[in-house]
Amino acid sequence: MTPTRSRRPSKRAAKQGVKTVTFDSDAAAEARTVFVNQAKGDSLADMMLQSMHDLIGGEGEFAILSSTPTATNQNAWIDFMKQKLSSDPKYGKMKLVQIAYGEESEQINQQQALALVQAFPNLKGIIVPAGIGLPAAARALDEAGLAGKIKLTGLAPASLMKKYVANGSAQVIWWNVTDLGYLTYYAAQAVAQCKLTGTDGEKLQAGRLGSYQVGAKGEVVLGPAKIVTPSNVEEFKF
Fold first, then answer.
1. pTM for the full model?
2. Phi-psi category of 104—alpha, beta or left, where left has phi over 0 and alpha has psi -120 to 50?
């Protein structure tokens, strides 16, 4: 059996009876038995928008700095945020002014973050739903003397953003990485012992984390992420 973070475990291996469990990043459902997901995509998008709302006081211009135009997950999150902006009165005073792309490059993310600030003088914040982009944008704004003036939020290891979270210039949407690994171990063990087949509705006992239920397409969800703020940043060691 093969536990993997790869997005492309071999379908040929599955046909030959090799059992594969993915975690963190999924693969085609037919190529693995179970996917251990850290959190549901819509909940991550909702938290990013909520975080930006809180950081800028619920009103003003903000931008999104995604990774690439073809990033499926990030495009889905952006679509969700657009829907919430247009339908939820809570976000009625917030305006999304532009979606930029960092192309999965630290340097380009830094350049794009500064370009957004220059292009939109009234910009209050940037959502960065990409792990490499958020720390890069934070460093660029910090070096330009803009940390705190332009608020940041998005997905990135809390440990890489601790300085900016602690001083109030940023928040992070993250999860308990240790628990994700712990849950994956129990899922992999159950699959290896033929106690878990990835069928919708199956139960998985995961030690101190308790009981989980397999969802559609063999997905097991760790649970909701958290908005990392100065009050809880010490909880996150990764």
1. 0.88
2. left
Give the tens place of pLDDT for each residue, 202-238: 999 999 999 999 999 999 999 999 999 999 999 999 9
Q: How far apart are CA 202 and CA 220, in angstroms?
A: 10
**Cα 207 from chain centre:** 25
* DSSP secondary structure string for all residues of 98-112: EEEE-TT-HHHHHHH
Enter the DSSP assignment of 68: -
If pLDDT is split at 50, 70 and 90, which confidence band does 27 have? confident
Torsion sign, CA atoms 74, 78, 84, 85: positive
DSSP letters along 11-39, please?
HHHHHTT--EEEESS---GGG-SEEEESS
Task: Specify whether the CB–CB gap between 96 and 64 falls below 8 A.
Answer: yes
CA 111/CA 20 separation, integer angstroms: 39
Residue 3 DSSP symbol: E
Report the chain's mean pLDDT, rounded to a whole number.
Answer: 93
Q: Give the C-alpha separation, 135 to 158, whole Å.
A: 10
Count the neighbouring beta carbons within 10 Å of the beta carbon of residue 234.
Answer: 11
Q: Give the residue among 48, 33, 8, 75 at the shortest CA–CA distance from 189.
A: 33
Name the β-bridge partners of 62.
96, 125
Q: Which run of H or E residues covers position 152? A: strand 151-154
Residue 52 burial (10 A CB sphere; 0-12, 13-18, 19+): buried
Task: Write down how long the chain is.
Answer: 238
Measured CA to CA, the distance from residue 206 to residue 12 in angstroms comes to 29
